[in-house]
Amino acid sequence: MAAPKKSRGPAGGQGRPGRSLALILIAMVALTGGMFLADQPAPRLGIDLAGGTSITLEAKSEPGQESAINKTNMDTAVQIMERRVNGLGVSEAEVQTQGDRNIIVNIPKGTNSAQAREQVGTTAKLYFRPVLTVAQGTPTPTPDATSSGKPSPGASAGADGKAKPSASATTQGRAVTDGLKADSSPTPGASNTPKADTPPSAPAADKAAAAKLKKQFEELDCSSKASRSKAAQGATPTDAVVACSSEGDAKYILGPAEVSGTEVDNAKAGFDQQRGMWLVNMEFTKKGSKEFQTITKKLSAQPSPQNQFAIALDGEVVSAPQVNTTLSGSAEISGSFTQQSAEDLANVLSYGALPLSFKEQSVTTVTAALGGEQLRAGLIAGAIGLALVVIYLVAYYRGLAFIALLSLLASGILTYTLMSLLGPAIGFALNLPAVCGAIVAIGITADSFIVYFERIRDEIREGRTLRPAVARAWPRARRTILVSDFVSFLAAAVLFVVTVGKVQGFAFTLGLTTLLDVVVVFLFTKPVMTLLARTKFFSSGHPWSGLDPKRLGAKPPLRRSRRVNAPTDPKEA
């Protein structure tokens, strides 16, 4: 006689609820432990809650380029500034336009605001220009005033008064000496300085333009930062210009730009162990590589200092290496960089130059007083909403409210720990809209519990006992919960993509809590309900359990109705 087959149980099976509960509890403990190990016991706060610095930048029009200040260029500048600030690891920085000419940058408290100010305001217009003439950074003296005791032009003087090289550059692993050698340095006022009637190879329009350029060069004083920044102001890439070194120890006449910084494909800061100095390594695009190869081929055949190319950033020469051979592909900027300055330069070069120049109009400190009051009001509103949800659950679902409250607590722990850990991980910061998103999530999470509870009640109304009802209700409730949460998550994702600024905080929080709702319902609410269905209080249909068959208007058991309708024994027919 064949052994009877084991019953597979009702649809939706009880499964192993203990495993699911253990899994989510381990995750909660791990997240909590990680929060304290990361020394981040609370979520990072945005500028509206923690305070910070607000910077107002005004776009400046270059001579003859007044039409450049338009919506397209302003929007591009906002995007580049956002990428630069985010590249510094700033959390919840907000960059937005105000009117037609202004950009507002809000930087939360706890960030190096001075560094961020320099990053957002730096135009980062990079050009590779041939060097035509170089001299000391002070106004050029007459030949009679030149003293043999002075350091060579293009080199900075050390503490001992001797000349030292300025910077060096390498491309594709080959070193190129930078600066001017002591025995080949041009002397101020010597023949290598352009004359009005014999202009250098720079394409000066005429003798008057050459004379004007020569006069600017001789009078240029690079000792102050203001004069250095104004030296090449208003010049276009096709002009020959005068420029100062970034340290002010040298001044140059530079030819038209041969390679633009827009052809830099990538830039990274690195430390050269052999030379013990910080560098900025650049990789060119295909077009930039060809242009760089052309200029280095041309310069390598020139005498000093015409065999140098200047790397000019926002009108200042950060490096001016000599070229001894044809180079292409990549380049390296070196000099008196610190780690921070090298990383800052790589950051601005990687994210591109601003299409406009900006003037810092105002810098104000934002206090968190107003945001604190709004947060307090929001938390009070959230507490009132949560209290109303609890009262409703207790009044309508009675004992089932205990399961709902435990699930809300689990969801709250996961949300809090994840928000705290996402601060240092991806720069997430909690702002007022994000708090609103978390409050809205209470309703979304409670809705999932209600769907499951109502499905269980429907099964009990059909005449089933609690344990089969819990198992059979789950597949139907699961589909409804997944569809509902998918719609909420889709709405949050679309909102995050199409909006900017603080609204993204709301969308991000809403999306995160929606995902956590699925996790909590599957790994916590369902297993807890399965375990409690085995207890006498719930399985017996206690009036305060919320699952009393009489209160729910349950039908007679389905098995009884089937027995009545079953066919009679053929022998009795």
Identify low-pLDDT runs. Answer: 4-13, 143-205, 560-564
The whole-number mean of residue pLDDT values reads: 76
Largest sheet: 5 strands, mixed, barrel
In which range does the helix fraction lie? 40-55%
Number of DSSP-assigned strands: 17
Distance between the termini: 29 Å
- Helix and strand content put the structural class at alpha+beta
Strand order of the largest sheet: 4-10-9-15-14
Number of helices: 16
Overall shape: elongated
Hey, roughly how much beta strand do the residues contain? 15-25%
Q: Specify Rg, calculated over alpha carbons.
A: 36 Å
List keywords for this structure.
single chain, 573 residues, alpha+beta, five-stranded mixed β-barrel, four-stranded antiparallel sheet, 16 helices, 17% strand, elongated
Give a short overview.
This protein is of the alpha+beta class and 573 residues long.
Q: Can you tell me about this structure?
A:
The chain has 573 residues and is an alpha+beta fold. The protein has 16 helices and 17 strands. The strands form five sheets. It has a five-stranded mixed beta barrel with strand order 4-10-9-15-14. Strands 2-3-1-17 form a four-stranded antiparallel β-sheet. A hairpin with a 4-residue loop joins strand 9 (241-245) and strand 10. The longest helix is centred in the C-terminal third of the chain and has 33 residues, at 466-498. The protein starts with 16 loop residues before the first helix and ends in an 8-residue tail after the last helix.
